[in-house]
Amino acid sequence: MIVTIDGVAASGKSSVASGVASALSIPYVSSGLLYRAATLLALEAGTSLSDAPALLSLLGAAPLRLEPLAGGNRIYLDTPDCPRELTADAHTSAVDAGVSALAQLPQLREWVNARLRALTPPFVAEGRDMGTAVFPQARAKFFLVASPRVRALRRVKERVGDVEAVEQALIARDEQDQLQSHPAADAQIIDTSDLDLAGVIAAVMAGVQERA
Ligand SMILES: Nc1ncnc2c1ncn2[C@@H]1O[C@H](COP(=O)(O)OP(=O)(O)O)[C@@H](O)[C@H]1O
Ligand SMILES: Nc1ccn([C@@H]2O[C@H](COP(=O)(O)OP(=O)(O)O)[C@@H](O)[C@H]2O)c(=O)n1
Predict the structure, then answer these.
(1) Segments of the chain with pLDDT less than 70
(2) What sign for the dihedral angle of Cα 19, 24, 25, 30?
(3) What is the overall mean pLDDT for the chain?
(4) Model's pTM, two decimal places?
(5) At what angle do helices 106-117 and 93-103 cross, to 10 degrees?
(6) Which end of the chain, N or C, is less packed with Cβ atoms under 10 Å?
């Protein structure tokens, strides 16, 4: 079984995916973490975020490993001499600001999608295009939205920042991600603005049971 949870930036995808995956006793998979880790490595190497061949060559030499646990995804660079966890560094403002440029490149989307499709179900997959491009066969699909202000307020609780600036950055990233971020025709759209986390998880679980 595959359940997909897509949505705009900071709409609650990973928290909801984690809650749903825990309730179903299956892992969840964060596709955004692969885009983020690729962006981090490119920024560190000084590789242009719009140079697909250079990015693919960089990633070809980088033994990235995604750990898709129900409680939270982690990503590692398994270089034999100096293994390193990249998860925290992949969630900085610098990565936030660069990731959409890399994610626009079809070759990089294929690189991510090949890794996702190689995973063995069951799992909950979260991102932007899980229910449309990557797992169109998923049993149940959801798309989370929330107002930019609500999302910014939630994000500044996790990371220090000015609400206004965070809101503008979220709006800018939504625009840059527009091409790949839309609900599948058979997705249930959930506005999480006035729901708490437990409420969103319950709504998704109800939708999953309906399709069991
Ligand atoms: N419905 C909700 N109500 C309140 N806080 C939420 C809700 N959904 C998510 N959050 C919080 O908002 C922040 C962003 O959620 P996250 O799951 O990281 O979103 P995304 O994966 O879409 O970026 C987290 O701190 C999370 O705990
Ligand atoms: N399926 C996906 C997942 C992420 N992404 C890209 O990766 C970025 C980071 O995704 P994320 O899900 O970790 O970001 P947040 O919504 O959690 O802030 C997005 O802004 C997109 O540019 C994508 O294009 N397609």
Answers:
(1) none
(2) negative
(3) 96
(4) 0.96
(5) 100
(6) C
Which H or E element spans position 143? strand 140-145
* Residue 16, SS3 per DSSP: helix
Q: Hey, how many other C-beta atoms are within 10 angstroms of the C-beta on 197?
A: 14
CATH architecture of the region 2-210:
3-Layer(aba) Sandwich (3.40)
Could you tell which of 128, 141, 154, 180 is best to mutate to test the pocket of ligand 2, judged by most ligand atoms within 8 Å of the CB?
Answer: 128
Nearest-CA residue for ligand 2 atom 5 is 32
Q: Is the ipTM of this complex over 0.90?
A: yes
Q: Locate 155 and state its tokens.
A: 């994000």
- Contact between residue 41 and residue 77 where contact means Cβ atoms under 8 Å apart: yes
Q: Radius of gyration (Cα) for the chain, nearest Å?
A: 16
Ligand 1 and 13: CB distance under 6 A:
yes
Tell me the backbone φ, ψ of residue 99, rounded to 5 degrees.
Answer: -65, -35
